[in-house]
Amino acid sequence: MCGEQRCASCGKRFSPRPQNPGQQYCSEKACQRDRRRRWQNEKQRTDADYRDNQ
Ligand SMILES: [Zn+2]
After folding, report:
1. Which tens digits make up the pLDDT trace of 1-54?
2. What is the distance in A from the centroid of ligand 1 to the CA of 53?
3. Cβ count near 16 (within 10 Å)
4. Which residues of 32-48 are buried (b: 16+ CB within 10 A; e: fewer)?
């Protein structure tokens, strides 16, 4: 098996942790920040949709 994954932020290859095989970002601080920002964007978007539906 290949255990290698390409980071969705910086494009570098990294080995995902066994506890988190679906990991898409490496452990670089910048990439973790990017992951968090994208997650927040997504959440804000879905929250906006939710509000509009009220
Ligand atoms: Zn990265």
Report:
1. 557 899 999 999 999 988 988 899 999 999 999 999 999 999 999 999 988 887
2. 36
3. 16
4. eebbeeeeeeeeeeeee
d(CA 18, CA 5): 12
> pLDDT tens digits, residue range 38-50?
999 999 999 999 8
Give me the pLDDT at residue 12, please: 96
Residue 17, domain extent: 5-52
Ligand 1 center–CA 4 separation, angstroms: 13
Domain count, the chain: 1
Residues with CB under 5 A from ligand 1 (ion): 7, 9-10, 26, 28, 31
